[in-house]
From TrEMBL:
It comes from the Bacteria. It is an enzyme of class 3 (hydrolase). Residues 50-131 form the Thiamine pyrophosphate enzyme N-terminal TPP-binding domain. The lineage of its organism: Bacteria, Pseudomonadati, Pseudomonadota, Betaproteobacteria, Neisseriales. Residues 220-352 form the Thiamine pyrophosphate enzyme central domain. PANTHER family: 3D-(3,5_4)-TRIHYDROXYCYCLOHEXANE-1,2-DIONE HYDROLASE, THIAMINE PYROPHOSPHATE ENZYMES. InterPro entries: DHS-like_NAD/FAD-binding_dom, Myo_inos_IolD, THDP-binding, Thiamin_PyroP_enz_cen_dom, Thiamin_PyroP_enz_TPP-bd_dom, TPP-bd_CS, TPP_enz, TPP_enzyme_TPP-bd. This is 3D-(3,5/4)-trihydroxycyclohexane-1,2-dione acylhydrolase (Decyclizing). Keywords: Hydrolase, Thiamine pyrophosphate. It comes from Vogesella indigofera (Pseudomonas indigofera).
Length: 618
């Protein structure tokens, strides 16, 4: 057996560079699009030297915050529909712990990312080293162990030979359709530098084949029988449709052939074009009137590739009356709430179920009603984004202006968002005709995802215009990767809608009967100078981006055209009406409301809560 002598770090990097996938056009691409790195004493000497030697084969990108780097990597995988991914390396201590939020975001959203945090010396000779977290009860615990609960697979490399099993396992988890998520390989800094004689064959190029688990005939037959007896079926589509090869076409064929309307989750939006006659739009708490009306009347709901998050189900009140069916590659998701399921890839499951249904079609009256509601909602959306509802511009008007600034926006643009009021507005109002055009991180709703996520999406899809729509609250949490986008030459457009605080949670606080408190600047404890006046345009310029401030919807549309023509990242700041959001649609969402309160508003909200709870699926 031929061997090659390399350090652990060198072997790891060489192995990653040798992993390939086949793109849709048949060309081969590297599985890893690169490695994000902020170097410190835990990774600069070992992994840093190895990455430098392989920089032409596997590029290294430097970010400004470890969380931001990992969020960019998460978005990169999402924009590639989980077919390509990135690795992220940090030092020990704070750098490692800054990964936890991003790892949780990827974990919740079932997105692949390889985390390579530096770790303390395995020999413990110099303990405690700088940044070491000492556990008084377990000498083997380090900061890297905080990543265990947010990793699909975790391993600590304590001797070189472990890489021979750990790396194939890592790749298997990262590319598994059901188990996909973040993987952590903790790398003690002394072990990174150890040399070993590796089999040369370990570094042979390998092409990953993504599996599409088949459907069991008995499960298909059971679901087909239930659907054949349905009169008012509805499909709820999730991200699993987009991640499945052929899933978009399979969903369209299934809906068209059997006459079943489709409600889309945040993860599944874009699987059908916005103007498809059977697309009822967003469903659930942030749902459209069309989709939610159909959900309330449906006798069978077929959930395809969705986690059935509470926003999708209206905390299990929206279609509690319906028989729940599921097609999901993940057993954990497929069996939720006692539904009958096909545990298979979305494309395979839909194709098999359609064949079993034959020429069966939903009732003509249901088909007609669905098409009428879908068409009415499309026309209503066109009116909402053009209709002023407040003295200041509204979120809806801003969305309309962004899309009106380009004739091909529904086909080319990628909108990126994650938290606050905008997810609800975009879920209802954003129009896209191309998969991936709606890039919403709403599994974890991670404030601060937006700018870093926009960068990751742009790196994955450089030919498309990436538009980050973000509130001032999320922008203030994590905006420094705007500088990274300038440094790397990956232009994004940031549309910052300033509502002077956390307006979304302020509305929720009031809906729960609470007083306005600690969300909007005007309701926060401040010093003698009061709340700061933040110049977002100046902030963006200080990070190297072009920027401007606008005051009207017309000015926003004109600024968007300048931003589209720009060659570098561009921020547009617009003050909006915080309380005003699109009232059409929506459903109940369960939030814990006190049973006892001195406020009559809270007591009234509790009464409404108890009435809604009685409508939940049990």
């Amino acid at each position: 057996m031929k061997t090659v002598r390399l350090t652990v770090a060198q072997a790891l990097v060489r192995y990653l560079a040798a992993q390939y996938v086949v793109a849709e056009d048949g060309t081969r691409e590297q599985l890893f699009g690169g490695v994000w790195a902020i170097f410190g004493h835990g990774n600069v000497a070992g992994l840093g030297e190895a990455l430098y030697a392989m920089r032409d084969a596997l590029p290294t990108f430097r970010g400004h915050n470890e969380q931001g780097m990992a969020l960019a990597a998460t978005a990169y995988a999402k924009a590639h529909f989980r077919r390509r991914m990135m690795a992220v390396t940090t030092s020990i201590g704070p750098g490692c712990n800054n990964l936890v939020t991003a790892a949780a975001t990827a974990h919740v959203n079932r997105l692949p990312m390889l985390l390579l945090p530096g770790d303390i010396f395995i020999t413990r000779a110099p303990d405690p080293v700088l940044q070491q977290v000492e556990d008084f009860h377990d000498g083997g615990v380090s900061a890297a162990d905080t990543l265990r609960p947010v990793s699909r697979y975790f391993d600590r490399i304590v001797v070189p030979e472990q890489l021979l099993t750990a790396l194939p396992r890592a790749i298997a988890y990262l590319t598994d359709p059901a188990l996909c998520g973040p993987v952590t390989l903790a790398l003690p800094q002394d072990v990174q530098a150890l040399a070993h004689d590796w089999p040369e064959s370990f570094f042979n190029e390998r092409t990953i084949r993504f599996r599409q688990p088949p459907a069991e005939a008995a499960e298909v037959a059971e679901l087909a029988e239930i659907l054949k007896n349905a009169k008012r079926p509805l499909i709820v589509t999730g991200g699993g449709v987009l991640y499945s090869q052929g899933g978009v076409a399979a969903l369209r064929r299934f809906a068209d052939k059997h006459g079943i309307p489709v409600g889309e989750t945040h993860g599944g939006k874009g699987a059908l074009a916005w103007d498809h006659p059977l697309l009822a739009g967003s469903i659930g708490v942030t749902g459209s009137p069309a989709a939610n009306a159909l959900a309330q009347d449906a006798d069978v709901v077929l959930a395809v590739g969705t986690r059935l998050q509470d926003f999708t189900t209206g905390s299990h009140t929206l279609y509690a009356q319906a028989k729940l069916l599921s097609i999901n590659v993940n057993t954990f998701d497929a069996i939720k709430w006692g539904g009958c399921s096909i545990q298979a890839d979305a494309t395979v499951g839909l194709t098999a179920l359609s064949a079993a249904l034959g020429d069966w079609h939903s009732e003509a009256a249901w088909d007609t009603q669905a098409r009428r509601l879908c068409d009415a909602w499309r026309r209503q959306v066109a009116e909402i984004v053009l209709s002023p509802r407040a003295a200041l511009p509204t979120y809806a008007e801003a969305i309309g202006a962004v899309q009106a600034s380009s004739a091909d926006s529904t086909a080319n643009d990628i909108v990126v968002c994650a938290a606050g009021t905008l997810p609800a507005e975009l879920h209802k109002l954003w129009r896209t005709s191309r998969p991936g055009g709606y890039h919403m991180e709403y599994g974890y709703s991670c404030m601060g995802y937006e700018v870093a996520g926009g960068l990751g999406a742009k790196m994955a899809q450089p030919e498309r215009e990436v538009i980050v729509m973000v509130g001032d609250g999320s922008y203030m949490m994590l905006n420094n990767e705007l500088a990274t986008s300038v440094m790397l030459g990956h232009k994004i457009i940031v549309v910052l809608l300033d509502n002077a605080g956390y307006a979304c949670i302020n509305r929720l606080q009031q809906a729960c009967g609470g007083a306005q408190f600690n969300n909007m600047y005007e309701h926060c404890l401040t010093g003698p100078d009061g709340a700061p006046t933040i110049d977002f345009e100046m902030n963006a310029r200080s990070l190297g981006a072009a920027a401007e401030t606008v005051r009207t919807v017309a000015e926003l549309e004109a600024a968007m055209q300048r931003a589209r023509a720009s060659t570098k990242s561009y921020l547009i700041s617009l003050q909006v009406d915080g309380p005003q959001c699109t009232p059409e649609g929506g459903s109940w969402w369960q939030v814990g409301i006190p049973q006892v309160s001195a406020r009559s508003e809270v007591n009234a909200a509790r009464e409404r809560f108890e009435e809604a709870v009685r409508q939940q699926r049990v």
